[in-house]
Amino acid sequence: MNPEETPQKPDLGKLILNELNHTSPQPPEKxxxxxxxxxxxxxxxxxxxxxxxxxxxxLTSQEVYAGFGQSFGAGLAAMWDVVARSYAxxxxxxxxxxxxxxxxxxxxxxxxxxxAFNPFLESLVTSTPYxxxxxxxxxxxxxxVFNIGAEGQLFIGAITSTYIGYKLVGLPMIIHLPLALLAGxxxxxxxxxxxxxxxxxxxxxxVINTIMMNYIAFRLSxxxxxxxxxxxxxxxxxxxxxxxxxxxxxxxxxxIRFHLGFFLALGxxxxxxxxxxKTTWGFELRTVGSNPFxxxxxxxxxxxxxxxxxxxxxxxxxxxxxxxxxxVNHFLAMAFSSGYGxxxxxxxxxxxxxxxxxxxxSLLFGTLRNGAxxxxxxxxxxxxxxxxxxxxxxxxxxxPAIIRSLYRLRKPAEGEGLxxxxxxxx
Amino acid sequence: xxxxxxxxGITKRFPGVLANDHIHLTLEQGQIHAxxxxxxxxxxxxxxxxxxxxxxxxxxxxxxGQKVTIHSPADAIAQGIGMVHQHFMLIPVFxxxxxxxxxxxxxxxxxxLDREAAAAxxxxxxxxxxxxxxxxxxxxxxxxxxxxxxxxxxLLYRKADILIxxxxxxxxxxxxxxxxxxxxxxxxxxxxxxxxxxxxxxxxLEIADLITVIRRGRVVGSVxxxxxxxxxxxxxxxGRDVKLELxxxxxxxxxxxxxxxxxxxxxxxxxxxxDHVSFNVRGGEILGIAGVQGNGQTELIEAITGxxxxxxxxxxxxxxxxxxxxPRVITELGTGxxxxxxxxxGLVLPFPVMDxxxxxxxxxxxxxxxxxxxxxxxxxHAEALVKQYDIRTPNVFTLCSALSGGNQQKVIVARELxxxxxxxxxxxxxxxLDVGSIEYIHQxxxxxxxxxxxxxxxxxxxxxxxxxxxRVAVMYRxxxxxxxxxxxxxxxxxxxxMAGVPPxxxxxxxxxxxxxxx
Lengths: 426, 518
Description:
The structure holds 2 protein chains of 2 kinds. By secondary structure, chain A is an all-alpha fold. Chain A has 18 helices and no strands. Helix content of chain A is 72%, strand content 0%. Chain B has helices spanning 43-50, 73-78, 96-101, 115-128, 144-157, 174-189, 201-207, 230-238, 297-304, 327-332, 342-346, 353-356, 375-388, 405-417, 435-450, 462-468, 491-498, 503-509, and strands at 5-14, 17-27, 32-36, 58-63, 66-68, 81-84, 162-166, 193-198, 210-215, 218-223, 256-266, 272-282, 286-290, 310-317, 320-321, 335-338, 368-369, 372-373, 423-427, 454-458, 471-476, 479-485. The longest helix of chain B has 16 residues, at 174-189. Chain B starts with a strand and ends in a 9-residue tail after the last helix. Chain B: Residues 5-241, 258-502 form the ABC transporter domain.
């Protein structure tokens, strides 16, 4: 059979997508009372994650063991102390210390004010690439493709926008910056198009192909940074500095790195929302993603939509890379991404593949990650705990069944709906 | 003497659903006890409890007066209970004997399988009950009716005394149904007892000694067939009076709308599924395609609607060549299509009812202006159709996955019939639906016929074909073996054609007399 003609059979990716669709927030479930499960489950997952995190903090804390060595009461006190201190540090590290903010405002010292408010703004900076990449993966999921290649697309996007960023000299910002962003989007789009095309034309599974494309992107970046794109005179594999005319403008003086990228990301989230839910393009994409057979029956072009989805997803991931190099680093180095592309898979899940959900999930993640640094310093908690915390939250999100059974929530859809409206005879 | 099987107060709850509500059921030895009910009435749940697949929340099971608990199918088999499922559990590339032996392999002293001994037993059982099965035949070579007998032999081989047959006639031709009934009689004559699950009134009346009707998880009542008729059973099943006979107004067929010429279509495996098929359907006419499942009907319908590649031949719609045209072109020429697999093709289950109602017109005004979706127009359209077609849904935002099968089908029917169409292609439009839904959909199809729409109806339910069609085309192994006008289409005649008997011979066998429909 010609693979163009037949939509692919459901596979693992599809199964995951189906599971997601059960909790998908579209359409607004207007009849349901209370908090919809699409909100409740992520919320409970986060809470449960924090509880489990607390257990890990306790188990890895020397103080707690020392406390129990003295007496049971001292042990309990140490437990409470270390958890409270850790989460307080996490909070202030991520959002800022309210006391310090008030003092700074009273003192009127501009630098001190900036320092006091920096944690919060830095959290937004950390969240920004997550928003871009999370939107990329969510859009893919909506269209039924499992884009694991966001990380690779992000690298390619970073490379192309870096290149445009340092190679073109003397352009005004109004031209240079959009050009550099566009280059990032196009680079990522190309890296998404290839596995999309392979899937649509040959049936080659995008999960495997995007993973392979990731490796190609990593090695390509290494080669470029040690060869053609290496900064002249530098011993490190880094690119030349990007022209300031291509920088995403910052809103405040040092140390605040908060830049335009955050608002670009929010704007793009709206565009993705509009595209998915308010246009026929989006309707087609979502139909193909939910049921390729039904899409074919509806007269839609499954092949074209699959390629389109991967390309758009790649473009969004490419922008995540462009955002980092143009907004934060101003040059490209191998370590510029701390796995944003991979974390974004989890974010898309956490956000139910809805742009609003992705933004909220990204803010949560960026905040957690930013606060983690502070937590490590002031509470002597290994940064790995944060990773564990994130992993636990994700595990709960990705398997809503766990949360449902933990909190005895009923599964939505089929079961209950079926019986209330069963039959039309009597 | 105590009854061989007694269920007392069986209750089974699923989250939000009372699937079985204090069900009492008594099976006497040597009895055929029919369990009649609509889909979703709780028949299958009850049998799954009896077969050990579910545990009841309340209630007790007695076998020969002894209270038993059944935790698994293995327990059930040990208690002498066997079940033939609607979908057979046979391995096609094994022989009959090998299939029967599976899980019960008798071995010789040296540890090798003792096929000969097993085959001898299969032959004995086969002869004792008149099953006529060759122990050495490969299952893949056997017709469906014989495969079903293999399933029955499997149970008898395991010394089952109580046989549960779950919708056993669904896959059979009328002749095979008759043969099955002979076998069932022979089984009960020799002391076996049978629970026969069905939703077909006629069959139940013909074969059962006692009929228990279940509705919404409760026993409505038990009747003897001689005290009941189809109307009474149907109203017991549905809970209200049901019209079983359709009023089919006369209709003057107009110009040909669909012309199919020498069509050749392959299936997934590349085998020829539709073999030089030609026919036409005129406006105001229903052409029924009868045939046992898997004789090329599915492929034929898919090819006509643009969902399957046509190797050779021509399809013309309103005089226009649409051979291998994309589905959308065929749709836009005025084709309504109710696909065979409603959940796979006809609906996007995770989407709301509202979205599903525009699945094939979403890109047109008033639902879209340019590339912008006009959701308000979509909602209004959906609300009008929900009312007009009586789709039972809490609201138009409800996901289609939450609707019952009948209401899902109504969404498709509403979508396909509410457009101005010239051709309606309906594949198995009432499969798996309850009596009320079937009645409704049949009326809708007849109404389209009255409006001059050409209707191509493919169904494996012979009753449905005979009730609705003006002409009946019978498909057998990819070919249309005959196209018979309604007046000459008797159940016996069509049944023989479906089984592959050549038309002349079939005519002779039924004695050449024109027989009334039904």
